[in-house]
Amino acid sequence: MRGAELGRGKELSLDSCRDISALVSRAMDTRLTVGERVRVRLHLAICSACRRFARQVRQLRAATRELARRAIQ
Amino acid sequence: MSQSRLSHPATLTAEDLPAFRPALLRYARLQIRETAVAEDLVQNTLVAALQSLGSFRGEAAPATWLIGILKRQIIDHYRRMSRETPLSAAGPGDAAENEADLLDRLFARDGHWATPPVAWTDPEGSLRQEEFLAVLEACLKGLAGQAGRVFALREIMELEPDDICKDLGLSKSNYWVLMHRARLRLRQCVERSWVVERS
């Protein structure tokens, strides 16, 4: 996934928001490797935009499930 | 689940079934854009339920049992859809549709967010929560194609990723790409409509 998605802009590629957001998204559904988790944590520590993204995808999950729950009540 | 008669009748009879139609339709409409299709799936669900009333043992609430049947109908529908629109046939939200475009729009060349996510005002308080859910529901309806289907299977029907891959014939990496795309789109849509707090 790395190689394929990075393409250009190699200089920042490993810890770019673009890559980290993909890992954050994947972490919603699977356990990341230790290396990936460290990369995410280091990045989130310095990037408020990705911290918001991480928070918002969790919010979206909770709210979507709430919608589903309400629909069948 | 409320304590209404609908939720916990002692038995389930053919006459009880129509009362469940609105709830089933609401549930189907969350993940099926075309009203006619959603109605068909609900109809099929009620017919299937009628045919297997004998197997309803009351172990689950009737609504839960019926939703289980509806879920199966939706999964089968999705499966037909993904066969009919292979990944190469691009539609909005499909894997082949400008995967690069979406990411290139959302991210600058150096990999930073082109437009960084902004803080959302917390939808606390019941009125705000209602508004937030209404925004989300509208955005869910706009989530098209395979990405929308994968998202619905995971987040509305709460299936496991492995089962979703099996149902739709996706590779794991396809799945991650589609889910990520769905989340990026949904997030962007919600942010556009939701009152945001610049910080």
Describe the structure.
The complex is a heterodimer of chains A (73) and B (199). By secondary structure, chain A is mainly alpha-helical. Chain A contains four helices and no strands. Chain B has 199 residues and is mainly alpha-helical. Chain B has eight helices and no strands. In chain B, α2 packs across α3, α3 (62-84) packs antiparallel against α6 and α6 (145-156) crosses α8 (172-193). Chain B is globular, with a radius of gyration of 19 Å. The model of chain B is unreliable at 1-5 and 88-96 (pLDDT under 50). Chain A binds chain B through residues 1, 5, 8-9, 11-13, 16-19, 21-22, 25-26, 28-30, 48-50, 52-53, 56-57, 59-61, 63-68, 70-73, and chain B through 1-2, 23-24, 26-27, 29-30, 63-64, 67, 103, 106-107, 109-113, 116-120, 123, 132-133, 136-137, 140, 154-158, 161, 173, 176, 179-180, 183-184, 186-187, 190-191.
Low-confidence stretches of chain B: 1-5, 88-96
What distance lies between the first and last C-alpha atoms of chain A, to the nearest angstrom? 41 Å
Radius of gyration of chain B: 19 Å
What percentage of amino acids of chain A are in beta strands? under 5%
Mean pLDDT of chain B: 84
Estimated helix fraction of chain A: over 70%
Strand content of chain B: under 5%
Query: What value does the average pLDDT of chain A take?
Result: 84
Count of extended strands of chain B: 0
In oligomeric terms, what are we looking at? heterodimer
Main interface by residue count = A-B, 38 and 46 residues
**Helix-strand topology string of chain B:** HHHHHHHH
Strand element count of chain A: 0
Class by alpha and beta content of chain B: mainly alpha
Spans of at least 5 consecutive residues with low confidence of chain A: 1-13
- Helix content bin of chain B: 55-70%
Summarize the SSE layout with pairings:
The complex is a heterodimer of chains A (73) and B (199).
Chain A: H1 2-6, H2 17-27, H3 34-46, H4 48-71
Helix pairs in contact in A: 2-3, 2-4, 3-4
Chain B: H1 21-29, H2 35-51, H3 62-84, H4 99-106, H5 126-141, H6 145-156, H7 161-168, H8 172-193
Helix pairs in contact in B: 1-2, 1-3, 2-3, 3-6, 5-8, 6-8
